[in-house]
Design a protein that fits this description.
The protein is mainly α. It has helices spanning 4-7, 9-34, 38-71, 75-94, 98-119, 122-126, 132-156, 160-182, 198-221, 223-230, 236-267, 270-290, 294-322, 328-335, 337-360, 364-383. The longest helix has 34 residues, at 38-71. The protein starts with a helix and ends in a 7-residue tail after the last helix. The model has no long low-confidence stretch (mean pLDDT 87).
Length: 390
């Protein structure tokens, strides 16, 4: 029997890298190498990287589905992507110029998504339907733990050579745990159709997940400005440290939320878990938006993180059941558009609101961004009911 903890271990390494690169290092290296144009350079490189990730996951998904049909598994993609990603990761942290950083980041997006795209089909490939909530709990817990660990490494370690090593080694180790467990193991027979139209399910999941991820990236993108402008933390070192700790409280709580939600996701209506999680996040964000100090902000962020972990677990489980089993890697790539596109949409949608409210009252702009995030989470939690119970 497949062990969910070992099957999902590779997700820790993948999310460790992205937690470090996307939350801290890409911004910091853009400012370092593009200098006064760092903000604009970051926005450009991040948007192009998200598009590369989407395209690669779609292409790798099609090829991985074909390999699944011919040899019974997609494990070659895990190996190829991880092996190629390690040099790209080291290059990203050691790149001495802006053109090299561009090339290294795009190479990392290309190579790691060769592994990450097909790997998203691992749960339906090896776990029977009745145990997918438990497996999704492990996947969600590893995701949050990886993000938290990556944030700590990138935010608190200043030697970039050590950062590269501290990310590459766990990436290889986590792949080794998963690959050793699966080596020579064929995937289970694909489930019969779930009774839900695959196209309808994909559209509903894309819309619901899209709104929820716009809410997440709105919160993440303007969190530093919230700490600076709304809570009045102006010291540069304190600002970076406190913002990192606030997001860290969110991600660490998400590990517990994923673990707590695993069994309810298997036993209850998964749509209900998504909606309760989104409503809880909205409540926490309402507190965060009105918080007069960090003493209120930290528990609100932790509550939001707890609910976020529950959402991620239910989200994985829903996708593993309702998306077409014989083309799972392909449709997972399409499903991930709801992660890539919000990274571009969230700042473009939110920036005018922040600027307008800051004109009305100094520091109110980031609070308005959090209120907008709250609305986006509620919209996503409501839309999931367009999907029949599974």
């Amino acid at each position: 029997m497949t062990n969910p903890a070992r099957l999902c271990a590779f997700n820790f390494g993948i999310q460790l890298v992205w937690g470090a690169v996307l939350a801290v290092s890409l911004q910091a290296r853009s400012v370092e190498l593009a200098h006064e144009d760092g903000v604009r350079a970051y926005a450009t490189i991040a948007a192009i990287g998200a598009m590369i990730a989407t395209i690669v996951q779609l292409c790798a998904g099609v090829l991985a589905d074909r390999r699944r049909k011919s040899v019974g598994n997609r494990q070659a993609f895990y190996l190829a992507g991880m092996t190629l990603a390690v040099p790209s990761l080291v290059w990203f942290y050691l790149a001495p110029s802006w053109p090299q950083l561009l090339a290294a980041f795009f190479s990392l997006q290309f190579t790691l998504n060769i592994a990450g795209g097909p790997y998203q089909a691992a749960i339906p490939d090896y776990i029977p339907r009745e145990r997918r909530g438990l497996a999704s709990g492990w996947m969600g817990a590893y995701q949050s733990a990886g993000n938290a660990a990556g944030l700590i490494v990138a935010g608190f370690v200043h030697d970039l050579r050590f950062v590269a090593l501290a990310l590459a080694a766990p990436l290889i180790a986590s792949w080794a745990v998963t690959f050793a467990h699966l080596r020579g193991r064929a995937g289970i027979v694909a489930d019969p159709p779930s009774g839900v139209s695959a196209s309808h399910a994909l559209v509903v999941l894309l819309c619901s997940r899209g709104f929820i991820n716009i809410g997440f990236f709105t919160l993440l993108g303007f969190l530093l400005f919230y700490v600076q402008q709304s809570l009045g933390i102006t010291d540069a070192n304190a600002l970076t440290r406190l913002t990192a700790l606030l997001f860290l409280s969110f991600t660490l709580a998400a590990i517990g939320g994923a673990a707590l939600a695993a069994r309810p996701v298997d036993r209850r209506d998964k749509r209900l878990v998504v909606t309760v999680a989104c409503c809880t996040i909205a409540l926490a964000l309402a507190v965060l938006a009105m918080a007069p100090s960090l003493a209120f902000a930290f528990p609100a962020a932790a509550l939001a993180g707890l609910a976020w972990g529950a959402f991620v677990t239910a989200d994985w489980a829903l996708a593993a059941i309702v998306l077409p089993q014989r083309a799972m890697a392909t449709t997972m790539g399409i499903w991930n558009i709801a992660t890539a596109l919000p990274q571009v949409v969230a700042p473009l949608l939110t920036l005018p609101l922040v600027l307008r409210f800051n004109e009305i009252a100094a520091g109110s702009g980031p609070r308005a961004a959090i209120v907008l995030s709250l609305v986006e989470f509620l919209a996503g939690g409501t839309l999931i009911w367009r999907l029949p119970r599974v």
